Model the fold of this input.
Amino acid sequence: MEKGFLSLVLHAHLPYVRHPEHDSFFEENWLFEAITECYLPLIGVLDRLHEDKVDYRLTLSLSPPLITMLRDELLKTRYLKHLHRLVELAEKEIFRTRKLPEYQKLARLYRRFFLNALDTYQNQYHCDLLSAFKKHHSAGNLELITSAATHGFLPLLSVSETAVRNQINIGIETFKSNLGYAPSGFWLPECAYYPGLETALGKAGIKYFFVDTHGIMNASESPRHGVYAPLDCGNGVAAFGRDPHSSKQVWSSQEGYPGDFDYREYYSDIGFDLDLEYIAPYILDSKTRINTGIKYHRVTGADLPKELYQPKKALAKAKQHGQDFINKRQQQIDGLSASMDRPPIIVAPYDAELFGHWWFEGPYWLEQVLRLASEDSNGVQTISCSDYLNLHSSQQLATPSASTWGDQGYSSYWINEENDWIYPFLHKAEQDMEKLASDLQRLVVNPLQQRALNQAARSILLAQASDWPFIMKSGTTSEYARKRITDHLARFNYLHESIRKNSINERYLLALETMDNIFPDINFRDFNPSVKPATTS
Done:
């Protein structure tokens, strides 16, 4: 029998940002940066492991907004233009640094990096990254799961069971329509759980979800094995808890690996460092400075002048940190297995965008961890949570406590003095949508009315995204976040009124459908509280 298991879980999510009404848009770069620096490098890791026949298991959660954006033709076209600009900028940097050989080496590295991204994206996977993830799922190494429709913060939507049900079910249906099968696991947005949520998950066919450490430790019954075995919530749906030790090693800004002095410094980018006239063709509207991804410095240390980045030294450190991570997991397993009646499972969940985007060497570190875990001598075996449940079908019965993985462990980052004003509007819009669907339950609606009703439902879901209240609190692009919520609510209110008055402007409706074209198969009737959709399977 195995002594213990490691379950690495990456959650890939970005808010739905798509602006066909503009030639370019600042926030669309969130997706472009993530594809270049995170998703393509991750696919490179999976491809190399596959070629080397490495036996590993990794779990990747793909959120419905991200799935939709990766498939969107407009965004794919814009991303290719973005990549070609980066290649051009790297070429320009090679010439600019011709008298600075150490800088020029890095400029050449970035040119190779961008050209490899272009080749992988365009030639190898034909602009379809979902096909790459499906390939590794089919090979048996990657378990793909999903999240809520627009990453809605479910505890604060739970005043309506219908709102929660639709966030879950529409998320799962989006995954199924794009990946071809139903997921076993579900990533709760922000790991935000409240007692009773497992009922909606179970009805949707979900077998497991994740909570933060204290969600398990403060459960209705004291967990016999802490966070190192799942809890059965009472309906056959399992809750897995985050291991605090493996989390701290990667997440902690003080003690975590990404803060090492040899790693690349994220905040040193030529988009901000070079003269505006030089960099203008490669930033937004030739005047708004943005990250280009070309960064020449390493972390170095607090309050010290940034030293030049040394890629070989950084990769050596990532390899060393990979071994350290495996060593510590082995020590954990040795200690835990002696007192447990089953092999412990160490669940290590992270935001996927940490790997490559914020931590440039993160994908290489992940590759080293997966390679080391495949070696019998290390005593650590990677596993998915589905695999673990198949091996150990009987779990302790208990209900996790309300919790999130946000700051202070609860909901304060999503409801506070910066954003609490939005929830009465969200709840009122949800009530209006449910009343509309209920009133029309037995009525025949014409095609134009149906389009308007479905678009109103999209507007509700988009307004419910957890990203916008989070950004308001963090203060990064808070004006944009406020505008997104108010725009989606305004669109809903307009559609609601025009449907009630039977005065739908088809031209304006078409504009809304063009801008917010997520969830093509949505059915407004699912917002009727009395309608109970069939169990997802």
Summary: The longest helix spans residues 311-337.
